[in-house]
Design a protein that fits this description.
Layout lengths: L4 E5 L6 E6 L6 H15 L4 H17 L1 H12 L3 H27 L2 E3 L7 E9 L2 E5 L7 H12 L3 E5 L5 H13 L7 E3 L4 H9 L5 E4 L2 H13 L4 E4 L4 E5 L5 H13 L9 E7 L3 H12 L20 H16 L3 E4 L13 E4 L7 H4 L6 E7 L2 H9 L3 E2 L1 E5 L3 H10 L4 E4 L16 E2 L2 E2 L4 H5 L3 E9 L16 H12 L5 H21 L4
Parallel strand pairs: 5-6, 5-8, 6-7, 8-9, 10-11, 10-16, 11-14, 13-14, 16-17
Antiparallel strand pairs: 1-2, 3-4, 4-20, 9-19, 12-13, 15-18
Helix pairs in contact: 2-4, 3-4, 3-6, 4-5, 9-10, 16-17
Bound molecules: nicotinamide-adenine-dinucleotide (NAD).
Length: 520
């Protein structure tokens, strides 16, 4: 890239696709003020109208699935099936869920009053305004689409910056929103790299929804803090998979295979660390290696490949450095550990060894087709090892003993635990997605995720206008007023005799209070 253009090439073939002009940073103030204007009108549209347009968008995703998948495969290098299943289908499911559930979730919600029975409270949800969505390149459709759909459903406008590695799908997303009938300017795609991302923050969006690396997440949070802009951070992972002694080996190795190598391992929730009970580790490793060798790797255009290319050139340097360190320290590469001759594909890699837990390849995010395997003797040791990470996105447990897996799940330090499944719950719109520790904070998807896109206002009123009176704690502060409150405390005691004993004094002071101490 130069300062003002991006050249997009297919990472699986090297073929140049297009050169794009970046959005000039001095165009951003205009983009934001246009978005604000459009958003003010959009916030007044009915929920029915918003849902209608989201369902139009879903129709376009179905009609145009082939061309959308082609853009994804071409600029990201993933197999077409991964574009279909993991991005387009998951997006369709997400639009279906939020158009059905969103209106109720965003309606006013009553809060039953515990004490003040003469009053009532409810929560009113209202839009944040113009929000910013900044996305990575690994799932360049699925990652932002949830934020865009939830964002507009909640009445916001969105300024969206796709990754500079995969901007074409970003342009396509804006086109699809406009074709679906959303007003122009409600979703605006901005093209550029980190400098453009940083310039977006200077426009003071109402909130920043960021998905990407820990390093960038920290920069964004620092910049946002200058303007007190709230941030949602969905960052990296080094997700563990625990394989218990009783696990079905065929099932466990297939789960590890897809969990570690789908999307060429360029998944935040990829299985990167496998913790196998020592009694089954040898059989597990050899079966996993056997299955790994059957995987087909190549450009999407060449048909039914299982693994695509490595999308981002710089990521290859990270793989090389982790592999080099592991080799130099005597790690055992069961398979893989090297690139294809044209360096576009990293062979699916399984690494283990006595000192694996000391190596970067086991501890730092790889974000590629690499799994590092270690062993454990007891459940406690497995939990301790799984939690020994700076990240906390997802973990999986493979076993026939579901109750034991649930016990383990409750002890794991992460946002999601899948039992006898791996990775895929970011594709379930009804469940919350997000992590802890260096993985960041805030939730995507589910009711919790939807509420990230609204201001929540508490409205408190009398149940009837006639029940408007001066509250007993108002001025002036007087002796019977004080005594009433002192007696009230007694009603909260555990002991029933003491509660009952307080009632005569409470009533006597209450009457004296109302008779003799009018509120001013
Ligand atoms: P990245 O942090 O390099 O870039 C992400 C986005 O941030 C890009 O659009 C980039 O242009 C922008 N950006 C860079 N510097 C910026 C700045 N100073 N201000 C504003 N924006 C800036 O990440 P990446 O390489 O695109 O993605 C890979 C990372 O994303 C991995 O660590 C992966 O684990 C993580 N990820 C996390 C999730 C999750 O849900 N937790 C999902 C997908 C990917």
């Amino acid at each position: 890239m130069t300062n003002d253009t991006l050249t997009i090439s297919n990472p699986a073939t090297g073929t140049k696709i297009q050169t794009l002009s970046c959005t000039p940073t001095d165009a951003l103030p205009g983009i934001f003020s246009q978005a604000k204007r459009v958003q003010s009108a959009w916030a007044k549209t009915s929920m029915k109208e918003r849902v209608r347009l989201i369902l139009n968008l879903r129709e376009l995703f179905i009609d145009q699935a082939d061309s959308i998948a082609k853009i994804l495969s071409d600029e990201n290098g993933k197999p077409e099936f991964e574009a279909f299943a993991n991005e387009i289908f998951a997006s369709i499911e997400l639009m279906t869920y939020f158009s059905a559930k969103g209106p109720d979730l965003l309606a006013d919600h009553e809060i039953p009053m515990a004490l003040m029975k003469h009053r009532e409270s409810y929560l009113h949800h209202w839009p944040l305004g113009v929000i910013a969505v900044i996305s990575p390149w690994n799932y360049p459709l699925l990652m932002p689409i949830g934020e865009l759909v939830m964002g507009v459903l909640a009445g916001n406008a969105v300024v969206f910056k796709p990754s500079e590695i995969t901007p074409l799908i970003g342009i396509e997303i804006q086109r699809l929103f406009e074709q679906a009938g959303f007003p122009k300017g409600l979703v605006t795609t901005v093209i550029g790299d980190g400098r453009t991302g940083a310039a977006i923050i200077e426009q003071r969006p109402a909130k920043i929804f960021f998905t990407g690396s820990v390093a960038t997440g920290k920069k964004i949070m620092r910049a946002a803090s200058d303007h007190l802009i709230p941030v949602n951070l969905e960052l990296g992972g080094k997700d563990p998979m625990i394989v218990l002694e009783d696990a079905d080996l065929d099932y466990a190795t297939s789960a590890a295979l897809w969990g570690g190598f789908s999307n060429s391992g360029q998944v935040c929730a990829s299985v990167e660390r496998i913790l196998v009970h020592e009694s089954i580790s040898q059989k597990f490793n050899s079966l996993l290696a056997e299955k790994t060798k059957t995987l087909r790797q190549g450009p999407a255009a060449l048909g039914n490949n299982d693994l695509g290319a490595i999308t981002f050139e710089k990521q290859k340097d990270l793989y090389e450095s982790q592999i080099k360190e592991a080799k130099s320290k005597g790690a055992h590469f069961i398979c893989g550990g090297e690139f294809s001759a044209d360096r576009r594909f990293l062979r699916p890699t399984i690494v283990t060894g006595a000192n694996i837990e000391d190596l970067e390849i086991y501890n730092e995010e790889t974000f590629g087709p690499v799994v590092a395997i270690t062993t454990f003797k007891t459940v406690d040791e497995a939990v301790e090892k799984a939690n020994h990470s700076k990240y906390g996105l997802l973990a999986s447990v493979i076993t026939k003993n579901i109750p034991l897996a649930e016990e383990i799940a409750k002890r794991l330090e992460c946002g999601t635990v899948t039992i006898n499944e791996v990775v895929y719950t970011a594709g379930l719109p009804e469940t919350p997605w997000g992590g802890m520790k260096d993985t960041g904070f805030g939730k995507k998807h589910s009711a919790q995720g939807l509420y990230e896109f609204v201001n929540v206002k508490h409205i408190h009123k009398p149940i009837h206008g006639a029940l408007t009176f001066k509250s007993p704690w108002w001025f002036p502060y007087t002796p019977h007023q004080r005594a009433v409150f002192k007696h009230l405390f007694e009603l909260y005691r555990k002991n029933w005799f003491k509660k009952l004993a307080a009632i005569p004094g409470l009533l006597w002071n209450l009457i004296a209070f109302y008779k003799n101490e009018p509120r001013i």
